[in-house]
Every structure is written in C-alpha cells, then in structure tokens.
Amino acid sequence: xxxxxxxxxxxxxxxxxxxxxxxxxxxxxxxxxxxxxxxxxxxxxxxxxxxxxxxxxxxxxxxxxxxxxxxxxxxxxxxxxxxxxxxxxxxxxxxxxxxxxxxxx
Length: 105
What we know:
Elements: H1 7-15, H2 17-31, H3 38-52, H4 55-67, H5 72-86, H6 88-102
C-alpha cells in the first residue's frame, strides 16, 4: 500500500488495501504485456490521460515521466500531437497541465 498517494487515490489505498493491491497488480501485468520500453509506456500513458481530459492523470504521468528522465520537450510533443485528434483547446489544456509539473527553472 502506498500511503504517499495524493487525494482520493491515497484514501482508497489506505481504506481498501486489497482493492489497491489488485489495481497495482493489474497495472503491472498490463505494463508487462507487450514490448514497449518504459519511456514509450510513460508517453503512451500520458497521451491516454490527455485524451481522457484528466488533468490529475496528466499531472501524475508528467510528474512520473520527469522523474524517469522523460524530457519536458518530449511530453509537450504529446500535447502537440493531440491537436489533430482532440482539437486545439484540448491540446492547449494538456500543454498547461504538463507545464504545471515540469516547468523549467
């Protein structure tokens, strides 16, 4: 159980540890189901979060991407790729969400 999780996810992990452990196991199994590199998986997860319009998930995947060595430029490219499929407003939102947690000093 990871009690360092923010907000509602942390509360679920704390109050429903069996559910959280099963969720983590499913995530691990899904991650190991194919040939993508860790970097590729992180960028795909970021793109899926962008497509879902989930600010929290974009923040999470951008934060994790940064800690895993994925560059801000690569993550911002994901936002730019969203323009054709999701539209300009969603891409702009994604860009700002990524920058929320990866702003260059």
